[in-house]
Amino acid sequence: MSSYRNRNCDYDCDCSRCCPQTTRTTITLAANPPTVCIENNNTTFLSGQVLVNGQPANREIVEFSVNPNLGIVIPLAVITTSSGNFTAVFIATNGPGIVTLTATVPDCDRATTSIQIPINNCQQPSNATIILNANPNGICSNGSVPSTSTISGQVLVNGQPAGGVTVNFSLNNPSIGTLSTFTITTDPSGNFFDVTFTPTKGSSNISNISNDFCFIFSFQIRICSIK
């Protein structure tokens, strides 16, 4: 979810709400799911809320824009409910790529917010690849004062970054260490970061599985015992 700025309206005082400058309008926006496909699953549902001075804003107009022109929003403008909420639908019409979807309250202080929505080519999962790194890839532990390794990587589909992909991790032997998380989602550039492996003893293969593409990748972190 994203929350953004509102503009100062001292340059344009054409409505009573802005004179004097006592209002502050904010807007939030989210997409579910956060990524779409070029075909078939090419729809995501948009939702958000408009607040004026921290209170839900009833009957505020919210307008949408998409850049670049790889999809459409239906409708292009909505009116908030008594709770300040609004909904719309984004439909991808082209791609792959990443669109910036902007929601704006065209009122005096012109609150605006933007989110990025990756559009992936989901029809060719066999061409998915993953780049996986561990830093460091050799760590030592005496069983009581362990070192750690930070895992990061990138998911590519047909050579293009795949944002919004769910990545699952597993250990071939859970008794030799722990992971800080077993599930992570790639950012709009297809990257994931800061998965920490903490060893106890032995050595381990860490497997990376992307549910979206059924792609499995494994690598080994070497672990030695400190005597």
Automatic annotation (TrEMBL):
InterPro entries reported for this sequence: Ig-like_fold, Invasin/intimin_cell_adhesion
Protein name: Big-1 domain-containing protein
